[in-house]
Amino acid sequence: MPYFYCMTTVNGVRPFPRTVATMATASSAPPPGPTAPAGAGTVVWSDRFLDYTWTPRHPMKPARLKLTMALARSLGLLDGVETLAPAECGESELLRIHTHDYIDAVRHAVQPPGEPVSPPYGLGSADNPVFPGMHEAASVIVGGTLAAAREIAEGRTLRAVSIGGGMHHAMPSYAAGFCIYNDAAVAISWLLDHGFDRIAYIDIDVHHGDGVQRAFYADPRVLTVSIHQHPATLWPNTGWPDEAGLGTAEGTAVNLALMPGTKDSPWLRGFHAVVPGAIAAFRPQIIISQCGADTHREDPLADLELTVDGQRAAMLAMRELADRYAEGRWLALGGGGYGLVRVVPRAWTHMLAAALGRDIDPATPIPDAWTELVRAAAPAVEPPATMGDGGDVAFRPWDGPGATVETGDARVDRALRAVDSAVLATRRASFSLLGLDPEDPRD
User: Which of 98, 135, 168, 169 does the annotation list as catalytic?
Assistant: First the structure.
């Protein structure tokens, strides 16, 4: 059986510290350029995203993208919306993040015999098997995220979404975790060269956003925030709280690691105890979100227990942060997610809706046309009935160390204590470097 990546190896305002204060005052104003109308949104899509196709046994299948767009269309979400078709990303843009030797290896890759654990450049393993047209397919994914970034940077839109993007594990010289080229990192690098110098990246995939963090770990212009399953329990085994940045970028990597079994309410408690404070302190000009849907309780490759309702709540929270702190500039990407029929299409349709300002109530029934499509394509899978799972997204805000309120339900109380412990570890590792009090819930 494949050794898929979840199992592979290894404001009372306070003054900023000097390093972060320099970052914060270098350019507090947004980059010059026209401003798109409030609520404007752009959907980047091409059927060429479906060419990113691994082996038949591989858990990442393009059907999840096709079913997402079909669901969005059946709901009328895309009525009147002209999607933007991307071109392949050129080599000069890939070289922002990846090495020439690696790009050349992807372009000429041939599947080695068997499924080697550590093949050259990571190409040919069970996680990253070679497939025909790999370079071209991955380049279109990057092109999609770059197209979204350009639309925002050049003022034609405030929000843009590319469900094909979010390949956050790819490293400069090797493929990892189903990711060939790191589209988010390439887009961030491009934005840094086109008028932006304060970019926040928020990653809510169940796996740590290791490739993007690594690309900007020593760059004080980029804040990376990752909320993920605890690295002691899940690949890539990184994203510990004390991974906080390097040199003048200390404090600009923020990692919240949550234990298996975490559900909507405690997950959202953790998110709101960490992310808004870090974003408010950093004052970004744009927020980029990786919205992997593998935090869902039905995902086969991980162990968090969110519902689509919780995932939707997180996306709306990130959009609100962009509206509050980045003048509405929000670039939303897909990512992981292996509940190909019941989970990803609903989660990412909510993401499309959030970017377009056409929010969908989770109680909305699934259209019959989409249900029939699913039954024909995947007769063994029971289609969902509504756009939500009936998840509980209400949460009590974090109220400081030692202040966890007991509910009387031992299981719930253990989960709350675990989340609060994770929150405090993250805040103590990063918040003081951002000029915030780690133990003050007002920060």
Answer: 169
22 near 64, Cβ under 8 Å?
Answer: no
296 part of the active site: no
In the chain, the largest separation of any two C-alpha atoms, in whole Å, equals 61
Task: Quote the CA–CA distance of 255 and 313 in Å, as a whole number.
Answer: 20
Helix axes 100-107, 134-153, angle to 10 degrees: 130
What is the tens place of the pLDDT at every residue in 52-92? 999 999 999 999 999 999 999 999 999 999 999 999 999 99
Question: Which residues, including other chains, have CB under 8 Å from residue 366's CB and lie 6 or more apart?
Answer: 71, 383, 384, 385, 386, 387
Task: Write the single-letter amino acid at 325.
Answer: Y
pTM score, whole prediction = 0.93
Chain segment 276-305, per-residue pLDDT in tens: 999 999 999 999 999 999 999 999 999 999
